Protein: Protocadherin-16
Organism: Cyclopterus lumpus
Amino acid sequence: MPITSKGSRPRARVSGPCVCSSPWRQKPLFYLCTLLVLVQSTTVLGALELQLDEEQPAGTIVGDISAGLPPGEIGGLYFISDHESTGVSNDLNIDETTGIITTARRLDREQRDHYSFIAVTMTGVTVEVSITVIDINDHAPVFPKKNAVLKIPEHTAVGTRFSLEPATDADKDQLTTQGYAIREGNIGQAFRLETKRAANKVLYLDLVVNGLLDREKRSLYTMVLEAFDGGSPRRMGSMTLEVTVTDINDHAPVFNQTRYHAIISEMSQYINNSSFSGVITLNRPLDYELKRVHELVVQARDNASQPEVTNAFVTIHVRDYNDNQPTMTIIFLSEDGSPRISEGAQPGQYVARISVTDPDYGEYANVNVSLEGGDGKFALTTKDSIIYLIYVDQVLDREERDSYDLRVMATDSGTPPLRAESSFTIQVTDVNDNPPLFDQQAYRQTIPEVVYPGSFVLQVTARDKDQGPNGDVRYSLLKGKNSHSDWFSIDKVTGIITTASALDFESEPAPSVTVVATDNGRPPLSSTAKVDIVLQDVNDNTPVFSSNFYNASIKENTPAGTCFLEVSATDEDRGSFGAISYILGSGSGSPAPTHFTIDKETGQICTSTICNIITAMELADVILCTHNILFELARVRVSVVDINDNRPTFYPVLYTVSLSTHSAPGTSVVKVTANDPDAGENGRVTYRTVPAGGTDSFIFPTSSTGVISLSRSLHGKANTVISMVISAEDGGGLTAPVNARVNVSVVGGSVASPVFDQAQYFFTVLEDVLRGTAVGVVRAAAKTGASKDIFYSISSGDPDGYFTVDSASGTIRTALPLDHETCPSRDLEIQARSGSPPAYGTSRVRITISDVNDNAPTFLPSSSESLLLPEITKMGTVIYSIQATDKDSGHNGQLSFNLVSAGAAGSSGQRTFGVDRGSGEVRLIGTLSYESVPRYDLQVVAKDGGAPQLSSTFTLVVHIQAQDAQGPNFDTLTYRVELRENTPLNTRFLQVRALNREASGTGGSSSSSSSSSISYRLRPDGDAAGFGIMPDSGWLFVRSSLDREVKDMYLLTVLATSGPGGTGRTGSATVRVTVTDENDNSPRLSQERVFLAVRENLLAGTGFGRVSATDRDAGLNARLTYRLLHTDRHFQINSQTGEISTRLALDREQQSSYQLVVVVQDGGTPPRSATGTAHISVLDENDHAPSFTHARPDRELLHQVMEGLPSGTVLGTVTAKDPDEGENGTVYYSLSGESSVQFQPLVKVCLTSVSSS
């Protein structure tokens, strides 16, 4: 370290306190005081200035005090004087003897940069020593923050300054911060740095914008700023500055083109869309016919406070779409403008004028018009394709056909074409060109000799094919001397001939009259018919059966229509009064037996259905022999004798079970079951095995038990499946059509069967759920607890296939519609299998089918009844007990009764009668008066307890019998009669008779006179509208068409009034008309085309689908049977249920689809039928292994290859085929063997290449 001295110069005295060096501190005080006196009395003679670099190690020599002595002075002992705050004593070591100054420690200029003290020699010479610590570059510039953030708006002017915090450096002068630089990140020289040193010697820093800032091009600059000092080498510090260029609204939106063109169909769907997407959408429908081009100005604006806006022009052309139907205007050319034409119109006469227009343009407006219907009687013509004319093309005959259904269709030329159509019916008006014609030229009728005047004789019918007045027929009797026309009269409208006066058998036993039928045409046309009337005696004898009780037996399956018993009865009356008709009944008011019919004339009893052993306990039937009011009863008991007509049937057909190799001999394996519904020996089933290999380990069923047991140990047969085929035979020698198969999986002793989490499950499902509804889930687990490899199936308990189970999840679902009334519950056995060969576990599942209220109450034997009640009946008397039933169960089947109406009696009737809500007993709770209310029509509603409730109404007609009645009295209170539906109009079917009560004790003539003043009428109500009654004779006749499918029972009230003009007292009777069925409805399939699927290889007899049909008729006419139109060797159909099943195992590879024509036929005579088509797809099973096609399986395929070939060289092709479908038929290839590592196959193709090894 250099030491410098500037020589001696005059100095001021040293005064003030002083500090002596250590040697002097140990001298006596005397010496110290002497020195002080000397120092204060001397003058400064020298000065010494020294310099030393900072950070030198301790012990570094700073200088020698003697260098500062005046010339000639010799140093010696030095006394050092300094202040405590100068740091000399701490930082420096001064040798008082030699005057050598050294550092006591490393000096730091930044803490102290100067030292000074005074050294005094023993001679009193003073030296002022000044030591300056020279700075070295030991500090680097430091920014206040390592990271700084600055936001600058884009487009800030070049030269704009942004002050940054400066870096500081503890060094001084040239070694402090000398400058700044942008080391990195100044992309495009967008910024520069400018500095300025302030008075405090700090070098301040400004960031200056040096170029154009554009946020859209660059929004962020990350720069590293560097500060450096003046040392050598210089030190540097850095800071990261992130400059974010903030956005200003300096760009207007720019379209990619100034004008847009678009074409859109007028039929495009319209939607509402956001305005931010730029997509032009429709917000209302377009109409080419209203506007073809739309000009739009689209404006794009940004979201700034002062937004920028740009416009573009959009031209949208609307493309015409064929969206307008042609329109037609039809004007009929008849006088009143209605669609009609006279049957006398000549060919070529115009019927209607049609004008056609279409609002569309171009080819869409070209319209073609066509005419359909009319059976060629009408045609269409046009001259300009705008106006069309319909004209008569062939001669018309209204009697052949009185109307024609025409349809005019106008079709445009669009794609797809639109069309308008108009259907109308042309009525052919009548001309009087046909005379009335009787349905027979001669009539013959037999009537009793004693009948009341006005009694019905017969009805003649003449029909006129003409219409309107031309077809209105009026009847009259031709007067003549010997015609006895004065005995009879004829109703000019109905043609009903009645007696006009008393008849005389003795004067003329067979009178005849001539009836004239005349129409109302101009001129009128007429015809005649002869009526011969034979008089007979009156009916006064009751029929008598030859026996009161009959026993009969028939064999089961006796064909329908087989007659097995003839009953007979005799009547002593002659003629028609001795004619007997037979009717079947039940004897308890319930409906007649459905299994039998009786010939009304011969009394032969025949089967109406095929009876089986189930109906063997047939109830005793009552045979009703009747003629008008007189009748007799007899009983017949029919026994059904069983025949062996049923084969045993296995259910299930497939039995699967697993056995452990540890199972002991004698273990029961499985029980097979076949059912035979026959009785006795015919129904006893024995089981045998069909010989097959691998079954020597089992004891097979040879009796009726069907139990298969283990006969020997299964050791050594692990992982095998033993299959057995079991046959069943009944006591009559019939065998099961399909044998049962038993598959026994033999598993190792350590293999555990799947175990269900419950031994038995209980589920409930409503009967009205849809097919596919989930009922419940069963779960099983293997020994490891895993359940994903377990598969489920229904092994038994569901022969009809009401349920399915998902094989993977165990979810049980409905497969067919459910009915609580026929099947309230099912007990299923669910089987779970896992492993290969599979191990099986089972669990029981009881599914309860809950009732829903789907059946309304029904009354027994019918929904109406009538009775005669004396007016003196005591209050509280039960007059009738209503019997009703409801097929539903629980609350849905609990019935309550309520009296809702009493007919014309109104509220007084409800105060007169009451109904027990629980039992249905009708009681008299008030008093009766024939004069006040002679009849009550009680309406009783039976409601069930379901929600919502279902109800039915019972009608009880109560006739009040006066204690001393004077009104007409009917010969019976209730008449019952059957009428076939479709009975011709005006057909008479019953004559009612009433007598005046006051004449009951007089003679016949008096009675006759009294009865002649009685007039009959029907009480006007809903049921009476379809019937009429002759007021004089009491004959009932059909007035409107009967249709059993619409209404099958009518309850009529006949009123008989005495006195002239019907002004006297009135009596009443009830007529119950039952409409019997005619086979007038064909069966109707629920689906005319049904699509089914069945897996190949299923056992013969497996059902997989069904067809169903309904028939609106009743009884035999509605009993349906199913058959295949053509016998098929692959499939069969159950004649009763319509279920389609396999006859043999199917092979999809031979035939993958079938089409069957199904015929469903009712039991009517003649029968009606309908046909449908079943399309059957055969689903694939993986039942074929791939086979190579290059050669026989026992021969090798040789390929030669040269050594040294590169990897990937194709050597050859082998091909394998699999006839299965889909993934089952996809073939993958692999190599095996010792050299297989040197080759590799290409996946799914048959090329082999050399590998790199």
Residues 73 and 185 are 68 Å apart (CA to CA). DSSP finds five helices and 93 strands in the chain.
